[in-house]
Amino acid sequence: MRAAVLHEIGQEKLEVLDDIEAVGFGPGRVRVRVRATGLCHSDLSAMNGVLPQPAPFVPGHEGAGEILEVGENVRHLKPGDRVVLCWLPACGFCPACKRGQTQLCLAGFMNAGTPNFRRPGGDVFGFAGTGTFAEEVVVDAGCAVPIPDDVPFDVAALIGCGVTTGLGAALNTADVEAGSSVAVIGCGGVGISAVQGARLKGAAEIVAVDPVASRRESALRFGATKAVSPEELADAKQQVTGGEGFDYVFEVVGRSGTARTAYENTRRGGTLVVVGAGAMDDFLQLNMFELFFDEKRILPSMYGGGDVLRSYERTIALWRAGRIDLAGLITHRVPLAEINEALDQMRTGTALRTCIEI
Questions:
Q1: Are 55 and 125 in contact (CB under 8 A)?
Q2: What is the 3-state secondary structure (H, E, C) of 315-344?
Q3: How far apart are CA 4 and CA 20, in angstroms?
Q4: Which site among 22, 62, 93, 168 is 20 to 30 Å from 122 CA-CA?
Q5: pLDDT in tens, 63-112
């Protein structure tokens, strides 16, 4: 079968090969035919080494498809079922799961160290235990979440990561208060989803911040009340909040520099929500006085900060009701053979989400 492979960390291009085999099928596992997958910035971060991932590997973790085969002891799935792939499944038994913080379950991360694929030259890993830039993938049954027949594969794929992360940051982690002021720094697919979440919660002012003009224009269509470049943020802060700072600021870039900017633009007693996945050697500096004196809450948000399966269900319900726009997030579509074009679209910021059709 075909899959897009990164041979070494740091390479900028993927090679689409046709000698890949999905491996690991057995009890408790399922084989999935991938139909659509989104390109998330985390895939780029894994490729350049910001996020740890063994190589060679198949990127992609935001996918949807249909079940081809189920292993022994799999009761909730059957061939032909439509599913979204969850890269962070909950085991249900660890301390985090028992506390109701299923997004902090580490079971899914254990899958990242087991090869998902094989080719004549040796083993190939799947990013985050999945690897959706492939025609087929074998995963634990818990990674395959059934979806209703009316949810298109491309929309379902986005629910698998970006939409769940951005919406959840506003709905779960921040629990944005109606009538509040919000700034979202970084307006790709995840940031736009945070904008939509803030709008759902009734925020009065939502300022979208991004260096790319097309993304700023998109943010306005999705519910932002104002869209500015990073250089214009100080003026927006003055205009919208009288210089006090925003009630909530979402950092959706994953860098200490933008996190520091987000902190400085959060009002005293306000909330900074860190959504972007950054590098382990990139440190955010805060002095102990400001941390105490400003009483700003700093809330990291992992995968939307709530139960993932419940978040999927809520997102589908909101989409069906017309309360959120998911299809509009897909600004570009490419076949798997042109995956490197999708990477360029992400790097230049021309795409909110590119759907890779497989």
A1: yes
A2: HHHHHHCCCCCCHHHEEEEEEHHHHHHHHH
A3: 9
A4: 62
A5: 999 999 999 999 999 999 999 999 999 988 999 999 989 999 988 777 77
Q: Is the peptide bond before 230 cis (omega within 30 degrees of 0)?
A: no
Show Cβ contacts of residue 33 under 8 Å, excluding neighbours closer than 6 positions: 65, 66, 67, 68, 135, 136
With tokens 């032909």, the residue in question is 80
Q: Where are the beta strands (DSSP E) in the chain?
A: 3-5, 15-17, 21-22, 29-38, 57-58, 62-70, 82-85, 117-119, 122-126, 136-140, 144-146, 181-185, 205-209, 226-228, 246-251, 266-274, 297-300, 330-335, 353-357
Q: Are the CB atoms for 94 and 104 separated by under 8 Å?
A: no
- Return the structure tokens found at 159: 């629910």
What whole-number distance in Å separates Cα of residue 96 and Cα of residue 168? 18
pTM of the model: 0.95
pLDDT digits (tens, 9 = 90+) for 210-262: 999 999 999 999 999 999 999 999 999 999 999 999 999 999 999 999 999 99
259: left (phi over 0), alpha (psi -120 to 50) or beta: alpha
82 with 88: CB under 8 angstroms?
Answer: no
Give the amino acid at 297.
R
Cβ-contact 175, 150 below 8 angstroms? no
